[in-house]
Amino acid sequence: MTASAGSTAGTAHTVIETRLGPITLVRSGANLTGLYYPRHWPRPDRAAFGPLAGDGFAGAGFAGDVCVAAASQLGEYLDGDRTEFELPVRADGSEFEQRVWALVAGIPYGQTTSYGELARRLGAGTDPRDVGAAVGRNPLCIVIPCHRVVGSTGKLTGYAGGLSRKRALLQIEQARLVQSEPAAAAGLW
After folding, report:
1. Is residue 146 flagged as an active site residue?
2. In this structure, which of 2, 14, 114, 119 has its CB flanked by the most CB atoms within 10 Å?
């Protein structure tokens, strides 16, 4: 993921079909600014999506666009062939949300952390519930991997796309890690 400042000019969105169902990609200028599920919670401001950019990417100036790259990389990730995203992104939020999202972006592929641990890393007096609220407002699900944040006991808790999608994303990552581990040496009897 490449954080980028950028213009809000050229805001548009498209909807792609994935193995998790339809996903709305939003771009502003050269940056990916949103990745949303149907019935995403909390509901994003659809007016900020800009116009629908055609069917898929056809005819809307999306050739070579960040949404084309995002769709391709998202497909690779969901197939287990990609572990990180290389996209120019801009996540608009408060200073606190930015700090939380930066920590979330640093959670290694295939690992999880808790809201409480993120609160501890942010400093004394940070309430895990405030962290949870900031995680829930992440506008770039999957790219900023909020699915890697779990409850203090390891239990899956809230996710903008629903717990079944959160579970699926974590299973994709675990399957990739299991496949990439070196095979145990065959024992000699």
Report:
1. yes
2. 14
